[in-house]
Design a protein that fits this description.
Layout: H1 4-33, H2 40-50, E1 96-97, E2 117-123, E3 126-132, H3 138-149, E4 156-157, E5 160-162, E6 168-171, E7 184-185, E8 200-203, E9 215-218, E10 232-238, H4 240-249, E11 257-258, E12 265-273
Biased composition (Low complexity): 63-85
Transmembrane segments: 33-56
Function: PPIases accelerate the folding of proteins. It catalyzes the cis-trans isomerization of proline imidic peptide bonds in oligopeptides.
Length: 275
């Protein structure tokens, strides 16, 4: 015979499992309907700022409403499972499987170097270079080193440009639809005191712990209203004039948010240790 206490624990566990299932469904629905997939957060935030609306974070942070039969059941205290942050003791990161890869190259090794690096992005319009902060964003830099070595970014297009509100060029999706990712996700990094000034290189996401392959380059200075929710992992040191030219030509079809009128194709990405 099940005791009242055991029954209460069972109900709490079932309630928590329903919450997680609902959360996953919301995230998947957001990825399908927002037309930017792993960057739902950036899409909504960008759209929100352009429209002078409140900032929305995309993804699974909305509270789940319990069904009427669950009103007397205590809520579970365990947080939703997510990728673990960098572990300095072992020098490792956690990369969790996440949906179907837009270009399947596998997952990065858990062990990362946590050292600074230089990234060179060869585009159809010129070369863009950036220093990567491996100390503050080791999992992010480790992921980029892996993807670059697998030629994940080769032949991809920067699919999104915003010219009003916050000013960014967004890249990193092999499908150029805004919904593609590498098939894994990893933890946010370097968010404390994050600032998105001109030249900052940061990750796009659809909520906490959903980093994949999409990233954005900030080319304007009107970005203080962007919340510190997007991992800044590098700084552009050369080639911002390439982004400026794309921004000057504007968005395809007009407006302040959409595919850039002047196409930007990434020919290849290389990452080397900083000299």
């Amino acid at each position: 015979m099940v005791s009242g206490k055991d029954r209460q624990k069972q109900l709490a566990r079932e309630h928590y499992e329903r919450q997680q299932a609902a959360r996953i469904q919301r995230e998947r629905a957001a990825k399908r309907t927002a037309a930017i997939g792993t960057t739902v957060g950036v899409l909504v935030v960008i759209g929100g700022i352009v429209a002078a609306a409140t900032l929305l974070g995309g993804g699974g942070e909305d509270p789940t409403t319990a069904s009427p039969t669950d009103t007397a059941v205590p809520s579970a205290s365990a947080p939703p499972a997510g990728p673990k942050a960098y572990d300095p003791a072992s020098g490792s990161c956690e990369y969790l499987a996440d949906g179907q890869a837009a270009k399947d190259v596998g997952q990065p090794p858990a062990k990362v170097s946590a050292q600074p690096a230089t990234m060179t992005i060869n585009t159809s319009l010129g070369t863009i270079e950036a220093t990567l902060d491996g100390a503050k964003a080791p999992c992010t830099v480790g992921s980029f080193e892996f993807l670059a070595s697998k030629k994940y970014f080769d032949g991809t297009k920067c699919h999104r440009l915003t010219t009003e509100g916050i000013k960014v060029l967004q890249c990193g999706d092999p499908t150029a639809s805004g919904s593609g990712g590498p098939g894994y996700r990893f933890a946010d990094e370097n968010l404390e005191g994050a600032s998105y000034k001109r030249g900052v290189l940061a990750m796009a996401n659809s909520g906490p712990g959903t980093n994949g392959s999409q990233f954005f380059i900030v080319y304007g200075d009107e970005t203080d209203s962007l919340p510190d929710s997007y991992t800044p992992f590098g700084t552009i040191t050369k080639g911002l004039d390439v982004v400026d030219k794309v921004a000057k030509d504007g968005v395809e079809g007009g407006g302040g948010d959409g595919p850039p009128k002047t196409a930007v194709e990434i020919k290849d990405v290389t990452i080397t240790g900083k000299s």
